[in-house]
Amino acid sequence: MNSGLGYKYPNKTTVFGTETPDVPSTFHFPTWHQDTVMWLINNRHVNMIGVDTPSTDFGQSTDFLAHVLLAKDNVVGLENVANLDKPPVSMSQ
């Protein structure tokens, strides 16, 4: 998922969307919704998903449901992926 957040690295304040990046309950960054994760697993049968954000779960998550759903179906979740806005032409079709 290319959220466009990649350009904010390595500034922790902008990456985590908070003035207190050491306090997880204050995190604000885009990522997958658990319904979308389930849809990708069930309808696209993905083996891997990636995000350019710190997590496949939303910042203030306490149940980490996206991680749970991915793990349950053996789907790899890649986080902090660079250059999602620049996929190679040969691999993007």
From TrEMBL:
Coiled coil: none annotated. InterPro entries: KFase/CYL, KFase_sf. GO terms for molecular function: arylformamidase activity. Pfam families: Cyclase (PF04199). GO terms for biological process: L-tryptophan catabolic process to kynurenine. It comes from the Eukaryota. SUPFAM superfamilies: Putative cyclase. Gene3D superfamilies: Putative cyclase. Belongs to the Cyclase 1 superfamily. This is Uncharacterized protein. It comes from Mizuhopecten yessoensis. The lineage of its organism: Eukaryota, Metazoa, Spiralia, Lophotrochozoa, Mollusca.
